[in-house]
TrEMBL record:
SUPFAM superfamilies: lambda repressor-like DNA-binding domains (SSF47413). Keywords: Membrane, Transmembrane, Transmembrane helix. The chain crosses the membrane at residues 136-154. The keyword Cytoplasm does not apply. Residues 201-271 form the Cytoskeleton protein RodZ-like C-terminal domain. It comes from the Bacteria. The keyword Disulfide bond does not apply. One of its GO terms (molecular function) is DNA binding. This is Helix-turn-helix domain-containing protein. Pfam families: HTH_25 (PF13413), RodZ_C (PF13464).
Amino acid sequence: MPLSAHPPGEVEGHRVVEIAVGEDSPSEDEFRFHTVGEQLKAERERLGFSLADLAARTRVPMRHLESIEKSDFSALPGSTYTLGFARSYARAVELDAIKISADLRSELAQSGHEGYQAPLQNYEPTDPARVPSRTLAWTAAAIGVLFVAGYFIWRSMTLDGSVDITMPVPFAEKSQIAAPAPKAAPPPSPDMTAMKGPVILTATDTVWVKVYDAENKRLYEKEMQSGDSYTVPADANKPMIVTGRPEVLTVTVGGKTVPSLGPPEKTVADLEISAQALLARTPTANPAP
């Protein structure tokens, strides 16, 4: 029986498929991220979030989130804030915040930024709805200019005598004007019992808090959740606090609630929180609605 010729790579009744494996296949290391910022950015893009979305979720300014992704630590406000921002970023993209924090701490140490502290600054809210529009800003500026101009016109007319602002005072009112006004009662002295009571910080929402003494010794540092509380040691040497959301901290001294540590969404730092200092503070006046 004559032998039939078959094409190369083919056997009678079967076809042999040859697959060549290239030598340029990507290695496992090429799939690994070199920095924590690259890992966070990749996960954010995988979930389809923009930096503006992350800023609204974490309440961290968008420029700081971008600096973390680029590992531009010199543009961030210190290592402590950087670690806190990274943990918030990791939770927003459903990564392990503890592992991200540990990896970033090692990265900060390798780059020489561990313990770095930038000058304190106020962080504005990242919610675009809270930022006034350009039209509103220009309108407010125009109203301010008109108000100032009207004041100077009124004052110039008053000084040159064209407007008489004097009015006759009835005799009955003169007798009332001559009577001396009663003296204001002296402000009440601080409650001595409260001055000896403990100072307790209670969080009503998620907030990062750091407490330290006059020698810059850290007494407490944590991202507090709603319901968490911390009692300041009574023997602490001039305890002070730094936090970015003082309005969500309820402060009591000896069971007595004291005024808020600062205005909403404004960072406070180097604020003494001993019992004597808190009771001596003047309550901040809230603007009328």
